[in-house]
Amino acid sequence: MTVTIAQERLASAKAPPAERMRRAARRWRYAGSAAAAVLSAVLIVWTLAPIYNIVMVAVESHGDVFTDAIWPPKPTLQGFWIVFTENYWYLEHFWHQFGNSVYLGTAVTLLTLVIGSLASFSIGRMRIRHGWLVSNAALLTYVIPASFLAIPFYRIMQSYGLNNNLWSVIAALVTFATPYAIFIFQQYGRSIPLELDEAARIDGATPVQIYYKIYLPLMAPALVAVGTYALLLSWNEFLYQFLLLSSKRSMTVPVALAQFLNSDEAPWNLMMATAIVYAIPPAAVYYMFRRKMTGGLTMGGVKG
Amino acid sequence: MTTASVIDIGGPAIGRQTLWRYWRGNLKGSEYLWALAFVVPYIGVFLTFVVYPVVYGLWLGSKPSLYTDLFSDPIYQSTIVNTILFVGIGVNLKMFFALMLSGFFMRPGWWMKALLMLFVLPWAVPLLPTFISIHWMLNGEWGLINNVIYHLFHIDGPAWLNTRWFALGSVIVAHIWKWMPFWTIILLAGRMAIPQELNDAAKVDGATGLRSFLHITFPLLANLYLICTLLSTIFTLGDFTEVFFITGGGPANSTHVLATLGIRDAFDLANPRLGVAAVMSALPVMIPLVIILMRKLRTTEVEL
Amino acid sequence: MAILTRRSVVRGSLGLVASGVLARPFIANAAAMTAEVWYAQGFVPEEDAAFKKMAADYEKASGNKLDYSLIPYAALRQKAISAITSGVVPDMIEVADFQLAPLQAWDDRLVDLSDLVAPAKAQFFSTALPSTYLYNNVTKKRGYYVVPTKVAAIPFHIWKSLVEKGGGKIADLPKTWDAFMDFFKPVQKGLRAAGMRNVYGMGYQLTANGVDPIGTFNAWMIAYGGQGLVTPDGKLHSDDPHVKDAVLKTIINLSTAYKDGYVPPGCINWNDADDNNAFHSKLMVMDFDGTISTEVALFHDKEQYDDILTRGLPLSNEGKELPAQVAVFGPVIPKGAKNVAVAKEFAKFMIQPTVLNEYLKAGLGRWMLPIPEIAKSDPFWLKEDPHRTAYGELTLIKPTLPFYEAYNPAMAEVGAENVFMSAVIEVMKDGAKPEDAAAKAFKRAETIFAKYPIAQS
User: Fold this and answer.
1) B197, B206, B210: which is closest to B7 by C-alpha?
2) Cβ–Cβ of C45/A261 closer than 8 Å?
3) Structural domain range at position C278
């Protein structure tokens, strides 16, 4: 055996440089794939661990939640059924509140994308004079963290008459998401050459057409990224939804979830089941738009 | 420098400067009106929803006696330390891993796409139930993690939330878990914006892997990375949710960060002004961050 | 989540209708106005249903309308603070925590309800009014700012089956304080020997989060003779030797139990719900936690429900009866409310004995009512259910004491920072000496009290 190995080694040592390089490259690639596989496994465990806990609590029956089981002893989908049929008093208006959340999320996303991209286009592409003032001013929004602007917001919403109205939350969230959107769009916009706009302008395009036909398509990954950010901001957020909404009919799901913290003893399986149902739409939205994200820009295709 | 000409996007450097002079402040007539119209929606949002709350918020935190109260709070010093650790380590580790992972996710293959889908889940699950779930996972007696450790190794795992440093570490890990996917997506989109021909040209020149990353990808991403880091720092400074739900500031108030201290002062001590003062005591750090961000956004072209 | 029997609902609604009929003469028919009311969402749906019926009944009797919202507890507190800070307030807010009312009364942000509460003094139990007699730092006087409607106290909850399994007998439960607590130590040993890996004798809430540790520390301190920590005039007696001794003993007793391994180590980071979770999963034999919600949550599981023993406080080590600290909650009316008259009328309607009784009964008796006469005459409270009987005796029959926050709002800050329980934790975890920890806690308490000087009249 050793003889053949030695012979092989001798043979490979005598191989021409190109062959050696190819073999090295192959070994490098295998190592790379192995490393990638390990990293993938690590990522899967890392990502899924807390989610596994959520799922486990959701399918366990009440008494099993705080035991030392690592696998649900008597898994049941009953929790989900109760959520779907609104069969628990905290979940009485679940679907209506879910609808409110969807409405909220959609409105915040669309408004953020539209207002943010328009402003970024005007400042970054059309280079309106003193445009930098607007983007700098936008930064002032972040000087005080959002959670601590809740009380001032509560006050102005009262004076604008938006009491207990979903639009008060929409306005607040758009206010916090748009500056971020403007920054990211500006940053992305830099990799799109201004010549494109100029060329279109020479061809007689109006600003609206440039915005619509050139800017938006090229910004697609940024739009998806920022849009998902805005959607998830409104989906995850709960402080403003607590404060600005009061009635069961206007509340959103995060407020409904907070009810479970009300009592010392709540059906945690229902809370987690609700959380899972509530997590599906954003994941689905991301799934639907992911191709826009990974489609990418190929400058070669756009230029010329 | 050769690198400069390879990365100089959008044609020869000289042509760029001409264009720059042409565009600056040179909008005429209807174009100017369009530019104005595009930026007006954001200005409207800003005037209606930013000016008053931020000014009111600043006023709330402006009484000097608040700061003497704040500094004499026995947990204030440890809170500052915790905030520095939480924000410093949390943000930087998160962004670093996001950068590395964004490269990882550029690999081709259907299972990469599937993995990315999975990877986005932490971002999609709602905050409140997820952090409560993590709080339960980390419990020394019945938490999932210690249950798994016991099942595998028959020893009792450490009580994760019972000591300050473990608890703080847990909170940092939870923060990275929740937000890393988001920044990975942003940086991934940023990588997508890099023209493929640059990478191809580099490959022809013999630069692959690490060198390609260091000389092509990273300089282009650098600006985006910096902006993301700064924004993330600002967001994280105001983020009370991880500490609030996972450790509650415990054990014995040793893991409070400025945001949770502010929440405690605002709502438990029924003193919102003290709460705002708590976060405003971070202004000496916030203001330089904001100024750097302003500078970054103002500089116009791709920086190399 | 507990079973709502038709009978209880019918009884409840009939009662409310009856009280509505009786109440009519009490309410003058003013011009119909609408009052905005924020009430805490109940712990069980029956509580919400009971509130809705009471509100509907008031509306019928008075002709006014109540625009009420039943808001989850956490959100309610944040909303209340936001509203009062920003000046845009509803007409009535229910207060269910220790801090809001004393601190807002101090700043003159609440309407004085003495004209409402004082005349009804006779019907309430002795601690009800002192609990709501809060100090206003602007007018420099005390007044009644909260309408007493709900009472809560802290009983012991014990798993009978676990005691038996650990080799103990319930009948042998000692009568005096330290012996009572020590009873659970051999029980734990017995249970561990029987193979239960994760079980602890005492479920003390030795955490600095939430309000439960406040009650725990106070109860031990009172048991050791430190009742005079704060006196009704609002003064902190940190140099009273009895108080100092009691605080020291409390710190030593609680921290030693933890260090000796009789308390679940994770308790140090429990939030308000974790102790219930732990108790229900039989992680500990005994729990010292407010109200009987622990039992009521298991109402549907008869076996477990009957397995829990609810009982009040043992005697002090010297054999004396100990007063239990009780919390009295109810609505407040913030200043600047637009319809104060209607809100006051609704409050007055609410505290009529029959109305209040039916309201709390329909809520499954989770909250005790502050009217001892009805508690004694209506079998629901002290006769029907052993848990409720024990709880009722603890809150209304045996001697009681208000929480110190009513004497001086400084105590609300001390409680929010959990100054004293932090001292216990320092000894437990950081190895501090009890005397040093106690001294540090007293010093911090004194600093806080210095911010709240109360003028003595």
Assistant:
1) B197
2) no
3) 153-323+405-450
Select from C86, C276, C283 the Cβ nearest to the Cβ of A264: C276
A82 falls within a domain:
no
Give the number of domains in chain C.
2
CA distance C147 to C129: 9
How does pLDDT run across B56-89, given as a tens digit for each residue? Answer: 988 988 889 899 989 988 899 999 999 999 999 9
Domain boundaries, position A94 = 87-302
pLDDT tens track for C158-210? 999 999 999 889 999 999 999 999 999 999 999 999 988 889 999 999 998 88
Cβ atoms B273, B63 nearer than 8 A: yes
A-B contacts (CB, under 8 Å): 318
Residues C441 and C420: beta-carbon distance below 8 Å: yes
The whole-chain average pLDDT of chain A stands at 82
Rounded to the nearest 5°, which phi and psi values hold at C152? -135, 145
Domain with B216 in it: what CATH number?
1.10.3720.10
- The nearest alpha carbon in chain C to A264 belongs to C273
pLDDT in tens, B198-234: 777 777 776 666 676 777 777 778 888 888 898 899 9
**Are C201 and C276 contained in the same domain?**
yes
Residue B252 located in a structural domain: yes
* Predicted pLDDT at A18: 78
Any idea what DSSP says for residue C406?
G
What is the reported pLDDT for C91? 94
Whether residue A273 sits in one domain with residue A149: yes
The DSSP-derived string for B133-175 is: HHHHHT-TTT-HHHHHHHHHHSSPPP-TTTSHHHHHHHHHHHH
Could you tell me the residue range of the domain that residue B101 belongs to?
73-298
**Are residues C348 and C269 part of one domain?**
no
Q: Based on the fold, state whether residues C197 and C283 are members of the same structural domain.
A: yes
Asked whether residue C311 is domain-assigned, the answer is: yes
- Please give, rounded to a whole number of angstroms, the shortest distance from the CA of B246 to a CA of chain C: 9
Q: How many domains is chain B built from?
A: 1
The total number of residues written for chain A in this structure: 304
Kindly state whether residues C110 and C158 are assigned to the same domain. no
Question: Which residues on chain B are in Cβ contact (under 8 Å) with A48?
Answer: 118, 121
Amino acid letter, A174: V
Statement to judge: residues C30 and C158 lie in one domain: no
Q: Using CB atoms, which residue from C48, C78, C276 is nearest to A265?
A: C276
> Do C378 and C295 share a domain, yes or no?
no
In degrees and rounded to multiples of 5, residue C74 shows phi and psi of -65, -45
B residues 154-173 closer than 8 Å to A (CB): none
Cross-chain Cβ contact C416/B266 below 8 Å: no
The CA–CA distances, whole Å, from B297 to A137, B227, B228, C85, C279 equal: 12, 9, 12, 37, 55
Residue A6 lies in a domain: no
Cβ distance of A262 and C69 shorter than 8 Å? no
Tokens standing for residue C205:
């809430």
Most A CBs within 10 A among B21, B23, B133, B199, hence the mutation to make, goes to B133
Give the A:C interface size as CB pairs under 8 Å. 90
For residue A92, the 8-state DSSP code is T
Nearest neighbour of A67 by CB, restricted to C41, C81, C281 = C281
Q: Is A155 on the interface with C (CB under 8 A)?
A: yes
Answer positive or negative: Cα dihedral of C429, C433, C438, C439: negative
Closest CA to B34 of A122, A87, A14: A122
Degrees to nearest 5, angle at CA C217 with C215 and C220: 105
Q: Do B45 and A115 touch (CB under 8 A)?
A: yes
- Please give the C-alpha separations between residue B24 and each of A124, B293, C16, C143, in angstroms, as whole numbers: 11, 22, 75, 68
With respect to residue A160, please indicate whether it lies within any of the assigned structural domains: yes
Strand partners, C331: C94
B267 contacts chain A (CB < 8 A): no
Provide the ipTM: 0.82
